[in-house]
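Q: Predict the assembly, please.
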Amino acid sequence: MDIKDIIKPENLVYKKTSLMQDKALSYCPGCGHGTAHRLLMEVIDELGIREDTIGVAPVGCSVLAYDFMDIDMQGAAHGRAPAVATGIKRCWEDKYVFTYQGDGDLAAIGTAETIHACNRGENITIIFINNGIYGMTGGQMAPTTLDGMRTSTSPYGRELGSMGHPIKMTELIAQLPGVHYVARHSVHTPRAVRRTKKAMFKAFEVQKERKGLSFIEIVSNCNSGWKMTPVKSNEWMEENMFLYFEPGDIKVDGKLVEKKKIK
Amino acid sequence: MKELKLLKGNEAIAEGAIRAGADAYFGYPITPQSEVMEYLMAERPEQRTGMIVLQAESEVAAINMLYGAAGTGKKALTSSSSPGISLMQEGLSYIAGAELPCLIVNVARGGPGLGTIQPSQADYFQATKGGGHGDYRLITIAPASVQEMFDFVALGFELAFKYRNPVMILSDGLIGQMMEKVELSEQKPRATEFDQSWATTGTPANREQNVITSLDLDAGQQEVHNKKLQAKYKKIVENEVRYEEFQTEDADYLFVAYGSSSRICQKAMELARNKGHKVGLLRLISLYPFPKDIVRELSFRVKSILCVEQSAGQMIEDVRLAAGCEIQIEHFGRMGGMIPIPEEVLEALEQKLIGE
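A: Predicted assembly structure:
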């Protein structure tokens, strides 16, 4: 039997996202990046805004994001994506501009660019992938590495007294008046995926209405960097990362949200 | 009728940018160039032409905003002074690597470090040899008057887009701060149609995605890219050499200088000629590409050369490389923000070259 006889259009339940390129992802099997990429491309596709969207790739695991996302993109220097996005958006004020950044990129080397783009209320969307580690360079301590967490540069566990505290960039930028929408989600369960996608729709809507900056943190696993199986890493993420980086809406319609947990 | 205006050098950069039809300016305040953004903000270019002006949180942000804006194919510029230009080197390397056309103005001041706010030409190496990491070059042009501060903005954009390469205007605090009469050119409209074939505009259905990046992890591919850059620089060297000669026809001695130093040399030349010394001046306009052929040619004709720079001697290295014979080449300069006076230059000429 030919494959065409098996896969009939009427039986289609799932297909490749059209804006994802036909390339093998460079991410480790089990990593959340692939899902986050796909969701973002689905949202752009479903909104029909590919012709008006420009993405900015960071330095980190997703440095090659433009090899997977089939849209116009610029690769930024480490941490500078919000400044690059500002330059693009100011030149194309009617187009959609987003950055896709990891925790080292956004919350360490790019702190100033992140805070000031947020503070100016740039009409851009920032997608922030937080896995608490420098994945690409081989698992070093990140600004969001949890207390006691072992990495290659904190081999005996992060010691808060000398290494500082994991930074909550998302809560920090939510305080700024230029920021209109802030949410923290994950992509490790079908339910979480649906919530994240919904948040992405919302973020682009905010951009369309020129209400200010929209910011989505995606708490993700790094099974390679954490030295766990994908399943174990997602369990560990729920048990540890979510306690400190609590999922849910943080700022909606320009107003900080009272704490309410997602069950 | 000619439109004349008395302007500071920094203001001429700003007015030049508006009139050249620039789309965007990103900057951060630093002495002695802050008047560029001050003038732009006061002029409301968003109303005059629709040009955008944005004060960034740092020079690092400003150069990366420029990277983003230049990636859209639009005409964008930034300006700063030496310490700020140092901060921009990372971004400049990325811009050069990604082959983005844009303009960077350095109104240089004395260094190293925080140095001083007084004029200096000690950024020559940085401006002409790349500046950041990797094998790349900026096209570097050096204005010597407020008029040229104005004119070189349009010229800079023209060169930037001709080669898809960043262009630097290397000026200094003297030219940035002094006031001169400027003949203003007519307002050029901002381009509504421009080459978007390589730029980030959003991907329409009829073309593949455009990606602006300097990254290629494959060393072989990166070498191919480097070779392409070098081929471009070769073309720039062949076609974009600019200089001016003053009284070199009968000269026994030659001043070589650029920017504000060349203005000082013009006066020193006059003083020297009044005393009977046959002195000429070669004023460099393009610093990269370096006008090496004319230096070589003149080195066969004159007895000796005095390089006058407001530095410990940086341009002199290129003059020595270009000179074709065993000719005496001396340096005279002041450093750290000190400006030489014509009499000092004359004295250096007499002592070092003429032997009086």
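The first strand of chain B starts at residue 3 and ends at 8. The mean pLDDT of chain B is 97.
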